[in-house]
Design brief:
The protein has 2 domains: 2-69; 76-215, OmpA-like domain (60s Ribosomal Protein L30, Chain: A, 2-Layer Sandwich), CATH 3.30.1330. It is globular and about 40 Å long. Helices cover 52% and strands 12% of the residues. It has helices spanning 2-20, 26-48, 53-69, 76-89, 126-138, 156-176, 201-207; strands spanning 95-98, 104-108, 143-148, 184-188, 210-215. Helix 1 (2-20) packs antiparallel against helix 2 and helix 1 (2-20) runs parallel beside helix 3. Strands 1-2-5-3-4 form a 5-stranded mixed beta sheet. By secondary structure, the chain is of the alpha+beta class.
């Protein structure tokens, strides 16, 4: 019974923290939400361990600490970078968004980034990457992940390396404009994460893309 009461109380505290986030800045709200979720999760885990109220309380404290310190921050700098990239890419077809875990995402379609079967950067992508590199250099605490994708034409043996090379080409372009390579990781997913129908020309074009994620780690 005590375990249930403490678990319920911890969940209530987490809910209160979430409600209080309405008066916070974006950075405070992100951290507070993480703490609230961590508190509730930690309490439940502590209760399931079978050691009574003490474990529930301990789990809640640990969960709050992990929730507050983990994940990514959506800081003022991140918001400013998003606004800058929205302005720089307006009308180009590049999608700029904030992910559920507070990363900035640029989704760059094939008509801007790469021709079919190639990984050399097209001329109309260069001004966008130039502006992007500038925003990265103004916010050096962020990290960057670049993920390349292909359509389903060709085998995995071709599409896997092609998708990685697209990510590498993008990384190297940013590095040439002053972004430290140590901040950038690259990955390639081949044709395994389509966003369009590979049975159509339009769908295959949508699948030939590069996604760039920018994250500011919670500290």
């Amino acid at each position: 019974m005590n375990t249930f009461i403490l678990t319920f109380a911890s969940l209530a505290v987490g809910s209160s923290l979430l409600a209080g986030c309405a008066e916070m800045t974006e950075t405070q709200r992100t951290t507070g939400t993480g703490a609230a979720i961590g508190t509730a999760a930690g309490a439940v885990i502590g209760g399931l361990s079978g050691h009574g109220g003490k474990s529930v309380a301990t789990g809640a404290v640990i969960g709050a600490a992990l929730g507050a310190g983990g994940g990514y921050l959506w800081s003022k700098h991140m918001q400013e970078q998003k606004a800058s990239m929205e302005q720089a890419t307006r009308g180009t077809g590049v999608q700029v968004s904030q992910t559920a875990d507070n990363q900035l995402k640029l989704d760059i379609p094939s008509d801007i980034s790469f021709d079919s079967g190639r990984y050399d950067i097209k001329s109309n992508l260069r001004p966008i990457l130039d502006r992007f590199a500038g925003t990265l250099n103004q916010n050096p605490v962020t990290t960057v992940k670049i993920v390349g994708h292909t359509d389903s034409i060709g085998s995995d043996a071709v599409n896997g390396p092609l998708s990685v090379n697209r990510a590498i080409a993008t990384r190297d372009y940013l590095a040439d404009r002053g972004v430290a390579v140590s901040r950038i990781s690259v990955d390639g997913r081949g044709a395994h994460q389509p966003v369009g129908d590979n049975n159509t020309v339009t769908g295959r074009a949508a699948n030939r893309r590069v996604e760039i994620f920018v994250a500011e780690a919670a500290r």
